Amino acid sequence: MKFTALMIAFVILVSSSVYSANEPEDALILYMSFDSIDGEQTIDQSKHENHGEIIGDVKHVKGKFGKALEFHGDQDFVQIPHHETLTVDQDVTVMAWIHTERHTVPNDG
Q: Does residue 89 belong to any structural domain of this protein?
């Protein structure tokens, strides 16, 4: 019985490490977790390596999960040079985690 439990645990461990070693899929166009940056450059963790340049007074800070970038106004941004892989001519899904310190809501009245 102990041997069977040990083998099941081993198979789960090996299968999860094999899954995590997989390359990002081709459909992923751009992925920046911001967990690590290279000087003034953000790292694209997709296969396409569309790294971005940090412009302005952007801070690398603790995020809700891992690290994040903190922006203060319209002079702070990440600029990603155009590349053909960034041209989307079909359906696309975009996801971003954004935390704002204040919200501007239109007047209800």
A: yes
Q: One digit per residue, pLDDT tens: the chain, 109 residues?
A: 555 555 566 556 555 444 444 566 777 889 998 998 998 999 999 999 999 999 999 999 999 889 999 998 889 999 999 999 888 888 888 888 888 877 777 665 5
Q: Let me know if residue 19 belongs to a domain.
A: no
| Sign of the C-alpha dihedral computed for residues 12, 17, 21 and 24 taken in this order | positive
Spatial CA neighbour of 102 closest among 72, 61, 66, 65: 72
- The domain in which residue 36 lies consists of 31-99
pTM of the complete model beyond 0.90: no
Number of domains in the chain: 1
